[in-house]
C-alpha cells in the first residue's frame, strides 16, 4: 500500500485527492524539467546555460519576462537556490553540497526567495 494511504487519515476525500494529485504531478514536471536542463547543458550552448527556460520563452510570454526579472533581482544566495531548485530540479542536499551552504540555509534561502518573488510579482 502506498505511503500516503497509511500515514494520514482522510477527512475530506476530494481535498486529499487534489493534494496527492498535485504533489505527484509536480514531481513528474520537476523530473521533466531536470531532464530538459541536462539536455540543454549537454549541448553546451552558452546562451542557454544560465536560464534555459527564460531565454527560450521571454519574447512569447510577458509573465515569464516579469518572473525572470524578479528572479534576477533576488539576493545572490536566494537567486542561486531558487534557480537550482525550481529550474534545474536539484534537491536541497544537492544545492547545499554544490553551493557550500548548510541544509537549513538552503531551506531558508528558498523560503525567503519565494516570499520576495511573491512580493515583487504582486507590486
Give your account of this protein's structure.
The protein is an all-alpha fold. Helices cover 78% and strands 0% of the residues. The chain has helices spanning 3-7, 13-43, 46-49, 52-57, 62-72, 76-87, 92-99, 103-121. Helix 5 crosses helix 8, helix 6 packs across helix 8 and helix 7 (92-99) crosses helix 8 (103-121). The longest helix has 31 residues, at 13-43. The radius of gyration is 17 Å and the shape is globular. The N and C termini lie far apart (46 Å).
Query: Which percent bin holds the helix content?
Result: over 70%
SS content category: mainly alpha
Question: Main beta sheet: strand number and arrangement?
Answer: none
Number of strands: 0
Estimate the mean pLDDT confidence: 75
Quote the beta fraction. under 5%
Q: In terms of per-residue confidence, which ranges show pLDDT below 50 for 5 or more consecutive residues?
A: 52-58
The number of helical segments is 8
Alpha-carbon Rg, integer? 17 Å
Q: Could you say which overall geometry the principal axes of the C-alpha atoms support? A: globular
Order of helices and strands: HHHHHHHH
Gap between N and C termini = 46 Å
Reconstruct the topology from this structure.
Layout: H1 3-7, H2 13-43, H3 46-49, H4 52-57, H5 62-72, H6 76-87, H7 92-99, H8 103-121
Helix pairs in contact: 5-8, 6-8, 7-8
Distinctive features:
single chain, 123 residues, mainly alpha, globular
Summarize the structure.
The chain has 123 residues and is mainly α.
